[in-house]
Amino acid sequence: MPKMVRFWEWLESRPDRTAAMDEWQQVLGGGESRSVAQRFLKPLETPSAAYPNSRRRGFPLNNACQRDGIILARDEVDGQDSKKLLAGGVVQYRLCLHRLRSALANALNRVCVSRTQIEPNARSIQIGNWEPRKSILFPVHLLIHTSPDDLKNEVYEQIIFGKRRGAILLTPTRMHWCEKIIDAVQLHNTLLVPLCEVLEADGDTLRQTPDWDQYLKGFAEAINFKLPGNYQHKEPLHKRATLMAKAEKVKIALVDHIRSARSGVVANLDAGNGATLVKFLTKTQLGKLAGLEPYHITRCLNADPQLKRLYEIANDPEQLLRYGR
């Protein structure tokens, strides 16, 4: 599953965390990354002032204007009308930190979400507290900064001037980590974690990777804290049940397709064209047959070896002929 690296990198390079949907979609890519990240976006009343430029990368289109009912975005350098926009294309979308905080707390094992208010332009957000055992709490903060110096100052503020030990500091990536920051967190028994390594997209939600528990185990050892025996993270049963239900849909769609595809291979043989497929079955096409998104198909194939085997048969004419005997 995708880890949304481009999304996390973008947060550390765009101070206002605001863009037109076209630009957000470029950052988010496709599939699960887009599905989950779009949940964090909130439309603003003020129109956007910059739009992606397909002709000259790095030079945004500006000055959206209307002409005869058509919205145009101009290239300021050459003054030419470069792109037509729909009415929704001029809307700005800002990352909603409240929504992001809730998603992070839900995804990360044993993190209880904070209820404190968050300023729209906040650079330090209290996500909540990591509670490995009842009454044992370690504060969890997200630091979003666009330079190593800004991140270093915030780290110092959190753990040195604030005299706080045992905190967990999250950053979108390792982009702005430096030796002084790493030395400071180690000296003050603080854990520094890049979200791009411990979170991945799972449908339209975030899900922790095994790296999160590995970071926490190392942190517990460093501060001489013994994790409880039942600490190990387990996937919720309802998520497993949902995945299995989707896998059953994929299986039914694959079996139906295989029967149909075999008839096509037989027809090609009878026509003297050899044992060839009528059409290769892509994951996107399989998703349509099963009523699912392509990323659901990938998850189902990875979760069930039998489905992966059926998918191989569906795209191999020799195996298709044997399967129908």
Write the layout of secondary structure elements.
Elements: H1 5-11, E1 18-20, H2 21-28, H3 31-37, E2 41-47, E3 62-67, E4 70-74, E5 81-85, E6 91-95, H4 97-107, E7 111-113, E8 124-133, E9 136-143, H5 148-161, E10 168-171, H6 179-187, E11 191-194, H7 195-198, E12 199-202, E13 205-208, H8 210-222, H9 237-270, H10 283-290, H11 294-303, H12 305-314, H13 317-323
Parallel strand pairs: 9-10, 10-11
Antiparallel strand pairs: 1-6, 2-6, 3-4, 4-5, 7-8, 8-9, 12-13
Helix pairs in contact: 5-6, 9-10, 9-11, 9-12, 9-13, 10-11, 11-12
Overall form: flat
Share of β-strand residues:
15-25%
Instruction: Please give the alpha-carbon distance between the first and last residues.
Output: 36 Å
Largest sheet features: 5 strands, mixed
Q: What is the number of beta strands?
A: 13
Average per-residue pLDDT, rounded, comes to: 82
- Main-sheet strand order equals 7-8-9-10-11
Helix and strand succession?
Answer: HEHHEEEEEHEEEHEHEHEEHHHHHH
Low-confidence stretches: none
- Gyration radius, in Å: 25 Å
Helix content: 40-55%
Estimated structural class:
alpha+beta
Number of helices: 13
